[in-house]
Write a structure and sequence with these properties.
The protein is an alpha+beta fold and 342 residues long. It is globular, with a radius of gyration of 24 Å. Strands 4-10-13-15-14 form a 5-stranded mixed barrel. It has a 3-stranded antiparallel beta sheet with strand order 1-2-3. The chain has helices at 2-16, 19-24, 34-53, 227-233, 237-247, 268-286, 311-319, and strands at residues 58-62, 71-75, 81-82, 99-105, 113-115, 124-126, 128-129, 132-133, 138-139, 148-151, 162-163, 168-170, 176-179, 190-203, 206-215, 258-259, 337-338. It has 7 helices and 17 strands.
């Protein structure tokens, strides 16, 4: 097998350097140097290591969907229980150009699902308000969430960190992500995305970044590389995103949300700065270098973390939860249209 691979690499170089054509035309042949072969081998190793970073994750559902007890736990490639907040790597390739995203809420759905910061192993659960499950209202013409909504693992908006441009503190959550591709992803899916930009929502006085990204397998992924490409290839989408975040709480009796930067979506460079800063803040959190602010930091794979637990202990946390049952009925109210006049 090694000999076959070596022959393929040599053939590739000959094709790139037009050596076969030179031989056919009886031209003087300039053979590639040893450095050329070493460079090609290096590139192949880099590609190989990038592809090896991608890992598969599964989910373990517990309790009855549409109930207070419903939880979605995660399992890693080796079958161990993992935290979607702490164990899943932020970066999905060695070049750090592709991120892992945990899908909490599939597009067009209304259930306000989120990674539970306070429970061990951080399962996804439905948000609760005044003892009742929370559903996002359909504010005409939007139905539910207009993107696949989720979080970037291994990021954290430190509630003691002040954003210089906004003078507001972090919201104590992982970074939120709006994945704008055409596929509706399932709850609990871990997908690979590339960052395009970011919006900054000021949610009840806290910094609440909304990263805009696209699934790397989406048909438009090669055309979308920065925020201006979104308006070019998806006209009106950024405006709809701004409007959605501005008005979605109004039917619940709350005022419209405010934005930094006049609602402008910042570009990819700025967004990556936010992502890297929040990754560093998470590293301090998981390394117990700061107060955990009530966050459950148990994990099964972060080697240097004082919060690391054994796979057996992780499994026990899941086993304490009730078995998966039939979904509870949902009130017709969640399908109602709400109208807002700005």
């Amino acid at each position: 097998m090694q000999r076959v691979d070596r022959f393929r690499r040599i053939t590739q170089v000959f094709l790139q350097k037009n050596i076969f054509q030179q031989l056919q035309q009886k031209q003087p042949v300039i053979f590639p140097t040893a450095a050329t072969f070493r460079k090609l081998a290096s590139n192949e190793r880099q590609f190989s290591s990038s592809s090896q970073v991608k890992m598969s994750y599964g989910i373990v559902e517990r309790g009855c969907p549409n109930s207070l007890e419903y939880r979605v736990f995660f399992s890693g490639p080796n079958g161990n229980t993992v935290s979607p907040f702490h164990d899943i790597p932020l970066f999905a390739n060695t070049e750090k150009t592709v991120m892992n995203m945990v899908v909490e809420i599939p597009r067009w759905t209304n259930s306000k699902m989120e990674i539970c910061k306070e429970e061990k192993m951080n399962p996804i659960k439905q948000d609760v308000k005044k003892g009742a499950l929370r559903y996002v209202k359909n504010v005409f013409p939007h139905h539910g969430y207009i993107w696949n909504y989720g979080a970037l693992p291994q990021t954290w908006e430190d509630p003691k960190h002040e954003t210089p441009e906004t003078k507001t503190l972090g919201d104590n959550d992982p970074l939120d992500v709006c994945e704008i591709g055409q596929k509706v992803h399932k709850r609990g899916a871990v997908i690979q995305v590339k960052v395009l930009g970011v919006m900054c929502l000021i949610d009840e006085g806290e910094t609440d970044w909304k990263v805009l990204a696209i699934d790397v397998t989406d048909p438009l992924a090669s055309d979308l590389n920065d925020i201006e490409d979104v308006e070019k290839h998806m006209p009106g989408f950024l405006k709809a995103t701004y409007e959605w975040f501005k008005i979605y709480k109004i039917p619940d009796g709350k005022p419209e949300n405010k934005f930094a930067f006049n609602g402008e979506a910042k570009n990819k460079e700025y967004a990556m700065k936010v992502v890297n800063e929040c990754n560093k803040q998470w590293q301090q959190l998981i390394g117990k270098e700061c107060d955990n602010h009530g966050i459950a930091c148990e994990n099964t794979s972060v080697a240097s973390s004082p919060y690391k637990i054994t796979p057996e202990d992780g499994k026990k946390i899941v086993e304490t939860q009730p078995q998966l049952g039939a979904a509870k009925p949902v009130a017709d109210e969640i399908d109602k249209w709400h109208y807002v006049k700005l």
